[in-house]
Design goal:
4 helices, about 140 residues, about 15% strand, single chain, Rossmann fold, alpha/beta
Length: about 140
Amino acid sequence: MTTKNRILILCTGNSARSQLAEAIINAQRGDQWEAVSAGTKPTSQVHPAALQVLAEIGIQHGGTPKHMDTFKGQPFNLIITVCDSAAQECPFWPGGGIKLHIPFDDPAAVEGDEETILKAFRAVRDGIPQRMFPVLDGYMPSFAP
């Protein structure tokens, strides 16, 4: 039986970028990776635009924002921060694993009409496979959680 690699995606609010990454990795690389996400200061809900742009590509995501302490002490192969704030607030992970910073602009901070906001969320959604999958696909496990 093969054990999946585990990845923790960290952001500040855990409502947009990290939720998008969790859902996309589980949907498109779930045979090799188990992705979870958390925030340093989680919001109360996943941003509705994040759920909408995931649905546009056939992904139904039932994630909820969680504080990073939820996963403290759990082993992960990779810990990826997707915002500068989370990278600064979490310089290392107490469960081990390789920490990487792959930042994305915050689509939840974009102001404007609905189409402008959705465009920002789509840019992050489409950037996740382009920027993260090469890292995941090239990963050589150094330990099994």
